[in-house]
Every structure is written in C-alpha cells, then in structure tokens.
Specification:
The structure is a homodimer of 128-residue chains. With 128 residues, the first copy, chain A, is mainly alpha-helical. Helices cover 55% and strands 12% of the residues of chain A. The first copy, chain A, binds a DNA duplex (30 and 30 nucleotides) through residues 1-2, 5, 50, 52, 69-71, 79-89, 101, 103-106.
Chain lengths: 128, 128
Amino acid sequence: MSVDMLLYASTYVNMFFVACRPNDPVQLLAGPLSEGDANELAGILKVLADPVRLRLVSIVASSATGEACACDFTAPLDRSQPTISHHLGQLVTAGILEREQRGKWAWFRLNDQSLDAVHRALGRPNCC
Amino acid sequence: MSVDMLLYASTYVNMFFVACRPNDPVQLLAGPLSEGDANELAGILKVLADPVRLRLVSIVASSATGEACACDFTAPLDRSQPTISHHLGQLVTAGILEREQRGKWAWFRLNDQSLDAVHRALGRPNCC
DNA sequence: CTGTCATATTGATGTCTGTCGATATGTTGC
DNA sequence: GCAACATATCGACAGACATCAATATGACAG
C-alpha cells in the first residue's frame, strides 16, 4: 500500500468515526448517501470484506478472554506470517481491532464501537 | 468480470442466502468463522464495499416508491452509463437489488432479506 | 421495418490488493 | 552484547476491479 493510499484510507476511517457519533450516524437506508459518507462507509466495509480478515475478527471476538495473540492466527488461517500481519494491520488502521504489545507478543482485541457503527450503518434507523 | 469469477461470486452469494435462513445465520461475532462462511460473508460485503454501489442502494432505499429507474442514477453519481450498469448488475447478482424491466426502462428495488442478512451477520447474536 | 431511445455487453487500461520470500525491528534471556 | 524469537516492513508479482469508449441488444413509436 502506498503512502498516499494509507493517508486516503485513514482519512476516511477517521471521518467515519466522527460521523458515527450517536447523533449523526451514517445510515445506508435513511436517505441518499453523500459522496463523502459513501466513501467513509465503503472504506471500512472494504477492510471487512476479506475472508481472512473476517476470520481474524471472529477469532478475536469469540475468544474467552476477548483477546488473541498474533501467534495464534498463522496456523488456522493457513497464511504466511507477513500476510497475517498485513491483515491485522489493516484491521487496526481501520479501528476494528486494537493492538497491545506485551513482551514479545502482540495481542488484539475488538473495538466494539467501530464494529457497532458499521452494524448500525447497514440497519434500519429504528434498529439497535 | 470473467465467467469463472462470476460463477465463483454467485456460488458464494447463493451459499450465503442458504446459510442466512433464520435458524442458521452466519454470525461474525458468535464464533470462529469457517473458511466457507468467511468466503460467503466477504463476497457480499465486497459488493457493498464500493462508494458508487452504496449510493445506488441508498437512493433506491430512500425513494418514495421504494424503487428507482436506472436513468435516475447516471447524473447524480457522475459515472458513465456503462459503469452504472455494471454496478447495478453486481448488486442484482449479489441479491441486494432486484431488477424489473418495464418497457424501455429498468427499475430497481431493494431486497430487504438480503441486506438484513448482512446486517445481522455483523451484529451481536441477541440483536435484531 | 426503421429510427430512436434505454440499457447491457465487450474490450482495453490503469490502479488496487492479497500473497509470499527476504529482511528489518524490537523484545527477552543469558 | 549476543542469540533466539515474535512481529513488522519491504519488494515483487499475479489476479482482481473500477472505469470508459465503442458497440450490441432490446423496446417502443411512427
């Protein structure tokens, strides 16, 4: 990913967070999306729209402690260590996962706010 | 899009519909996703993860009659007619929109079941 | 049947993305 | 400091994707 692309992506991710505060949610079904809103929502959906990243999120979310070590992902997902690291980086940049370094190991947990915002963006206005 | 890719995509879209019947929903947060479930969910999320397609869906969903004519999309979205047609085709293939030919015009409406399934897949198990 | 209009398909192109091997960075224990 | 280990970054590559111009398809009017 180029530097320009990274800046582009993080810009929209940040805008998405701002726009998803309770009183100003981006809502797919509430009205025609502006170009900006569509870019924000598409940006975070693109990060989710990958089988490996979805499995990473699901593994973290369903772990007993709510967190998982990077070392636990390589084997079940059948991808190289750089590839897993790349996907984890995408998820962290998008705000879907949070990374915490603990000694040699990197631990990841879900950012509930971020995923809830995406969830609500795809639902009806009066939904949860 | 190649024929192989189309077959690939439609396979996963169909599997997603099957998997999203009420008693067997794909749930991102309910447990580790299998490779198949992850492919299904990623497939339909990929279709949604484009600004133009999100705006198409939002325009259709928020129209007073619940449907919109293809001719209404080109101007506000600032894309060529073939590009709009391409995106509409993707949304129809994925089951998110339904197409109805009425004379010279093509009308599109939302498939509520499809979008609801994606919405629920990203939510908590006890959510709506 | 023919022209006109709306939409779909084709073909081409530049860009983006997932992947991996190689290597760098950073942490721990000795 | 040094060796061992976990993770991140770099560089490269193949495949996928969004886009448009040109063209084809299909429907209606006269």
